[in-house]
């Protein structure tokens, strides 16, 4: 008896999601406009809002990149494809944004102590246009795909709406009252918005890199559902981890009473895991329950477990005999 494995490497055809590309271009383009406008008007609130829009653009770029890169086929060097590239880019994005936040906060403290002139009217105009851009992008994302990446990008954009409102408020206060400290004070508020979303992103990235169970899944619920499947006596050595923000992998040992039931059980489990938990990359190994009392069988199972943990990917890649796909 050999281990049986199933890996689903099917991917969508075409490039990245078109519904994400236009919002990405709009956000990235206006981020440049706000950055130039912030420098021209002397408004730190506009510059910090531009920084937030840059983070939005990165989030959208990651969502688009993830949908494009997911269709790349497995190779001998990368047997799961290149889906982890999305996670690495997200890590770089988070670290860069922490540096941006630190720079904005430092400058804000300096400006509170030594206020600088700001052109309030121009700040209101640019921030108002930015608010309209964010509303359009939010509506586009709401009507588009509902992947984890696009939903995270939508949260970024909604947060940036608050940043635009804060910049409008700063411009209005300066225009009507001339009170300059409002600009750095609101820039700190915007920076806090960026910090919250950045730390959340960083936590998710580190969770994926540490092979953590996906946050949207309960491993006990998955184990219970698998154990309740017809002709399954038990489930152990269950592992669930993220390949990317949208792709989840699972491996487990399935205890059966009769090995002749394996193909039926395998198909049932694959279908259930896909329909209930959206898990498509599945590796399952059968075991016969009544063999555990046999010493030689125990030795064989130990050997198989070790081989499963370390050689599963290469077995699938080279198509060794005895592995059902």
UniProtKB/TrEMBL annotation:
<feature type="transmembrane region" description="Helical">
    <location>
        <begin position="153"/>
        <end position="178"/>
    </location>
</feature>
<dbReference type="Pfam" id="PF16916">
    <property type="entry name" value="ZT_dimer"/>
</dbReference>
<keyword id="KW-0472">Membrane</keyword>
<feature type="transmembrane region" description="Helical">
    <location>
        <begin position="124"/>
        <end position="141"/>
    </location>
</feature>
<protein>
    <submittedName>
        <fullName>Cation diffusion facilitator family transporter</fullName>
    </submittedName>
</protein>
<feature type="domain" description="Cation efflux protein transmembrane">
    <location>
        <begin position="23"/>
        <end position="210"/>
    </location>
</feature>
<dbReference type="InterPro" id="IPR027469">
    <property type="entry name" value="Cation_efflux_TMD_sf"/>
</dbReference>
<dbReference type="InterPro" id="IPR050681">
    <property type="entry name" value="CDF/SLC30A"/>
</dbReference>
<dbReference type="Pfam" id="PF01545">
    <property type="entry name" value="Cation_efflux"/>
</dbReference>
<keyword id="KW-0862">Zinc</keyword>
<dbReference type="GO" id="GO:0005385">
    <property type="term" value="F:zinc ion transmembrane transporter activity"/>
</dbReference>
<feature type="transmembrane region" description="Helical">
    <location>
        <begin position="82"/>
        <end position="104"/>
    </location>
</feature>
<keyword id="KW-0864">Zinc transport</keyword>
<dbReference type="InterPro" id="IPR027470">
    <property type="entry name" value="Cation_efflux_CTD"/>
</dbReference>
<dbReference type="InterPro" id="IPR002524">
    <property type="entry name" value="Cation_efflux"/>
</dbReference>
<feature type="domain" description="Cation efflux protein cytoplasmic">
    <location>
        <begin position="216"/>
        <end position="287"/>
    </location>
</feature>
<dbReference type="InterPro" id="IPR036837">
    <property type="entry name" value="Cation_efflux_CTD_sf"/>
</dbReference>
<feature type="transmembrane region" description="Helical">
    <location>
        <begin position="184"/>
        <end position="202"/>
    </location>
</feature>
<keyword id="KW-1133">Transmembrane helix</keyword>
<dbReference type="InterPro" id="IPR058533">
    <property type="entry name" value="Cation_efflux_TM"/>
</dbReference>
<feature type="transmembrane region" description="Helical">
    <location>
        <begin position="20"/>
        <end position="40"/>
    </location>
</feature>
<keyword id="KW-0812">Transmembrane</keyword>
<feature type="transmembrane region" description="Helical">
    <location>
        <begin position="52"/>
        <end position="70"/>
    </location>
</feature>
<keyword id="KW-0813">Transport</keyword>
<dbReference type="GO" id="GO:0005886">
    <property type="term" value="C:plasma membrane"/>
</dbReference>
<comment type="similarity">
    <text>Belongs to the cation diffusion facilitator (CDF) transporter (TC 2.A.4) family. SLC30A subfamily.</text>
</comment>
<keyword id="KW-0406">Ion transport</keyword>
């Amino acid at each position: 008896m050999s281990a049986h494995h199933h890996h689903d490497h099917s991917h969508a055809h075409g490039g990245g999601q078109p519904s994400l590309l236009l919002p990405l271009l709009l956000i990235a383009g206006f981020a440049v406009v706000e950055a130039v406008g912030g420098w021209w008007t002397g408004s730190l609130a506009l510059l910090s809002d531009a920084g937030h829009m840059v983070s939005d653009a990165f989030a959208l770029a990651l969502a688009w990149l993830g949908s494009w890169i997911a269709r790349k086929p497995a190779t001998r060097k990368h047997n799961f494809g290149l889906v982890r590239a999305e996670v690495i880019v997200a890590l770089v994005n988070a670290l860069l944004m922490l540096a941006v936040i630190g720079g904005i906060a430092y400058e804000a403290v300096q400006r509170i102590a030594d206020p600088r002139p700001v052109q309030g009217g121009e700040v209101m105009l640019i921030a108002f246009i930015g608010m309209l851009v964010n509303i359009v992008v939010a509506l586009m994302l709401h009507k588009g795909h509902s992947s984890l990446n696009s939903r995270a990008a939508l949260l970024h954009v909604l947060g940036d709406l608050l940043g635009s409102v804060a910049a409008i408020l700063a411009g209005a206060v300066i225009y009507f009252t001339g009170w300059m400290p409002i600009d750095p004070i609101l820039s700190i508020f915007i920076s806090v918005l960026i910090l919250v979303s950045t730390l959340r992103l960083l936590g998710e990235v580190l969770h994926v890199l540490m092979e953590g169970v996906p946050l949207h899944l309960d491993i006990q619920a998955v184990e219970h559902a698998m154990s309740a499947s017809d002709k399954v006596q038990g489930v152990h050595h269950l592992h669930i981890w993220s390949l990317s923000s949208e792709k989840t992998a699972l491996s487990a040992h399935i205890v059966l009473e009769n090995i002749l039931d394996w193909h039926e059980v395998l198909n049932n489990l694959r279908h259930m895991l896909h329909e209930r938990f959206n898990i498509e990359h599945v590796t399952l190994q059968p075991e016969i329950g009544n063999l555990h009392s046999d010493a030689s069988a125990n030795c064989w199972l130990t050997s198989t477990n070790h081989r499963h943990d370390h050689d599963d990917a290469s077995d699938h890649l080279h198509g060794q005999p005895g592995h059902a796909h």
